[in-house]
Specification:
There is one protein chain. Helix content is about 50%, strand content about 20%. By secondary structure, it is α/β, with parallel strands linked by helices. The protein has three domains: about 5-195, Four Helix Bundle (Hemerythrin (Met), subunit A) (Up-down Bundle), CATH 1.20.120; about 200-295, Elongation Factor Tu (Ef-tu), domain 3 (Beta Barrel); about 305-415, Rossmann fold. It has a six-stranded antiparallel β-barrel. The chain is elongated, with a radius of gyration of 25 Å.
Length: about 425
C-alpha cells in the first residue's frame, strides 16, 4: 500500500465530516440577525450536514469502504457523526429559545414547547425524538441484533422527518436536493445491504468442525464471485436447508482461505443465537455474500511482523498463510482458552514447520486475560516491527497498552474490531 494511498484513506472521512456540514453552514449563514439566532440557525445546518455524512457512512459498499479506509472505520465515524449531529440539533432550538429569553421568557418557553407551536415546528421535535431513540440503541448491547437493527433504522426516519420539517417551514433550497440525497442513501442501504440485492449467490459445499463451538464453512460461487483478498471479511446471510434454518440476517465473517474456483472458506465461532445455529449448517444451503471488506494485513516492506491472535481472531492470519509463502520474518503469538478451543491449531503447527519465515508461539490462557508482559517480545525485539492484532476487544485494548509501553508507535499497530452496532 503506497504512502499516498494510505494518507488519502486516513484523511478521507475527517475531510468529508468537515466539508459537508461547514459547506451547509456557510451557504445558509444569515446576515443582520442577533448572535443567538445566528447560532441557532448555524447549529441546525451543521447538524443536518453531519447527519448526511452519518448516513453515507453506514453504506455497505466494498468500493466505498476501500476508499474510506474500511467498513469498521466507517462505522466508528458513523457513530461519532451521528452523536455530534444530535447534540448540534438539540442546541438548535435551545439557541433559538435563548434568543427570546431577554425580551420574554414566556416566548422563549413557547419556542421549546411543541404543544404551543405549529405542527410544522412539532415535526422537527418528532425528528429529534426519533434520532434520540435510534442513537440510544447504539449503547444497548443486550437487545437482539434484529431488534436493534430495526430500532436503529429510526435514525434514518428521523433524518427524513427533520428535512421535511425544514421544507414545511418554507426552506426549499437546498433542502429538497438534500432530502433526495438522504432518501437515495437510505434506499441504497435498504435494497443493496439489508435486503441483499447487492449480494453474490453462493452455495455451502461443506462444513467441518474446527474446535469446540467453531466450524469452517466452504462456499462455492454460483455466478460471478465476490472480490475478496486474504485477510478480508465478508457479510454473509445463510438461507434454509433440509434441516438447517437461516437467521435471515447478514453477519460479518473473516475468510480463512480462498481456494480454487474462488471457493471461500469462513471460520465461524458460536457467539450468539445465530452463530450457534451455524454449527449445524449442512451442504446445499444457499448463501448470499457481500464484500470483501477490510484487510487486517496489508502488503508492506520486508520488515518483521508480529501477529497476535486471540481465539477465532487467528482466522485472518490463517488466510494469509494459506495464500502463499511469507515474504518477511513473522512471529505469530496465538492465545486461546484451551487447546480444545483453538481453531486451526494443527494447521498452524504444520505451517510453522514448513514456513521458514514463520515462528509460532501458542499459549493456553484459560478464562482470564494472560500476563502479556511475559508473552510479548521486549522493546528491542519490537523495533521496526509491524504489529497486527485480532481478537476480543478486551484483549486488543490490553495489547495496545502493552505495546505502547514498549515504545511501539500507534502507526505500527493495526487491528480491526468487527463491531457493527
Amino acid at each position: 500500500m503506497s504512502t499516498a494511498g494510505s494518507a488519502s484513506r486516513r484523511w478521507s472521512i475527517p475531510l468529508l465530516t468537515l466539508a459537508v456540514p461547514v459547506g451547509f453552514a456557510v451557504w445558509a449563514f444569515p446576515d443582520g440577525l442577533a448572535p443567538l439566532r445566528v447560532a441557532g440557525i448555524v447549529t441546525g445546518w451543521l447538524g443536518c450536514g453531519l447527519l448526511l455524512v452519518s448516513l453515507l457512512l453506514m453504506l455497505r459498499e466494498p468500493r466505498l469502504a476501500a476508499w474510506l479506509g474500511g467498513l469498521e472505520r466507517m462505522y466508528r465515524w458513523h457513530h461519532v457523526t451521528g452523536i455530534a449531529a444530535y447534540v448540534l440539533l438539540l442546541l438548535h432550538p435551545l439557541a433559538l429559545a435563548a434568543n427570546n429569553w431577554s425580551s420574554s421568557p414566556k416566548v422563549a418557553w413557547q419556542t421549546l414547547s411543541p404543544s404551543t407551536e405549529s405542527w410544522q415546528v412539532w415535526s422537527g421535535w418528532l425528528g429529534l425524538l426519533l434520532l434520540m431513540v435510534g442513537l440510544a440503541t447504539t449503547f444497548v448491547r443486550r437487545i437482539r441484533y434484529g431488534t436493534w437493527r430495526w430500532l436503529h433504522a429510526l435514525l434514518g426516519l428521523g433524518v427524513l422527518i427533520g428535512l421535511v420539517h425544514l421544507i414545511l417551514l418554507g426552506i426549499d433550497e437546498p433542502v429538497v436536493p438534500i432530502l433526495a440525497v438522504a432518501g437515495a442513501i437510505l434506499g441504497w442501504r435498504l435494497i443493496r445491504g439489508d435486503l441483499g440485492l447487492g449480494a453474490r449467490p453462493y452455495l455451502v459445499t461443506s462444513a467441518r468442525p474446527l474446535a469446540e463451538r467453531s466450524v469452517e464453512i466452504a462456499l462455492r460461487p454460483l455466478g460471478e464471485p465476490a472480490i475478496v483478498f486474504p485477510g478480508q471479511f465478508v457479510l454473509v446471510e445463510f438461507g434454509d436447508g433440509r434441516r438447517y434454518r437461516g437467521c435471515g440476517e447478514f453477519h460479518p465473517f473473516t475468510v480463512s482461505a480462498i481456494r480454487a474456483g474462488n471457493e471461500l472458506h469462513l471460520a465461524i465461532k458460536a457467539l450468539g443465537d445465530c452463530t450457534s445455529k451455524m454449527l449445524a449448517i449442512e451442504a446445499g444451503v444457499a448463501a448470499r455474500v457481500i464484500g470483501g471488506f477490510g484487510g487486517l494485513i496489508e502488503p508492506r516492506d520486508a520488515g518483521p511482523q508480529l501477529w497476535i491472535a486471540g481465539g477465532i481472531g487467528v482466522t485472518p492470519f490463517m488466510a494469509v498463510l494459506n495464500a502463499g509463502p511469507l515474504l518477511q520474518p513473522t512471529r505469530l503469538l496465538y492465545l486461546y482458552r484451551t487447546e480444545a478451543d483453538a481453531a486451526f491449531l494443527p494447521e498452524l503447527r504444520a505451517a510453522a514447520s514448513a514456513e521458514p519465515n514463520l515462528t509460532l508461539h501458542c499459549a493456553a490462557t484459560g478464562d482470564d486475560l494472560p500476563d502479556l508482559d511475559k508473552l510479548l517480545p521486549d522493546a528491542s525485539r519490537l523495533s521496526g516491527t509491524e504489529c497486527y492484532l485480532c481478537g476480543p476487544p478486551g484483549l486488543v485494548a490490553a495489547l495496545k497498552s502493552v505495546l505502547a509501553a514498549r515504545g511501539v508507535a500507534a502507526r505500527h499497530v493495526h487491528y480491526e474490531n468487527f463491531e457493527f452496532r
